[in-house]
Design a protein that fits this description.
By secondary structure, the protein is mainly beta. The protein contains one helix and eleven strands, in the order E-E-E-E-E-E-E-E-E-H-E-E. Strand 4 and strand 5 form a beta hairpin.
């Protein structure tokens, strides 16, 4: 069974921090690019940050540059998203996705919201 499971979401105050985890199973995790995406109510899904398989290339959306850090530990089949200086506009359901298609760039994956496998999402709420 091919699975991606997100965890770590919750309620945090503006300016706070939260770390999300994306754990994969049932596929060759280390060879896949992994992306974090988010969707707020009434808005489309947007790319947040993506990391490639193999060479570790990283892409961040402009809205999160300097605040979020993506990393991966392939020995644990896990990708992390460390989020700092959180803002109310960061409130959304956060999804991770895996993509093994090498025919397009990592930026394209993130900007166009591409993935082969998707997790169930984890809610992040930034509020006082």
């Amino acid at each position: 069974q091919l699975r991606l499971v997100e965890s770590g979401g919750g309620l945090v105050q503006p300016g706070g921090s939260l770390t999300l985890s994306c754990a994969g199973s049932g596929f060759n995790f280390g060879f896949y690019a992994i992306g974090w995406f988010r969707q707020a109510p009434g808005k489309g899904r947007e790319g947040v940050s993506c990391i490639s398989g193999g060479d570790g290339e990283i892409y961040y959306a402009d809205s999160v540059k300097g605040r979020f850090t993506i990393s991966r530990d392939d020995a644990k089949n896990t990708v992390y998203l460390q989020m700092h200086s959180l803002k109310p506009e960061d409130t959304a359901v956060y999804y991770c996705a895996a993509d093994g298609d090498a025919s397009y760039s990592l930026q394209t994956m993130c900007v166009t919201v591409k993935g082969n496998y998707w997790g169930q999402g984890t809610q992040v709420t930034v509020s006082s």
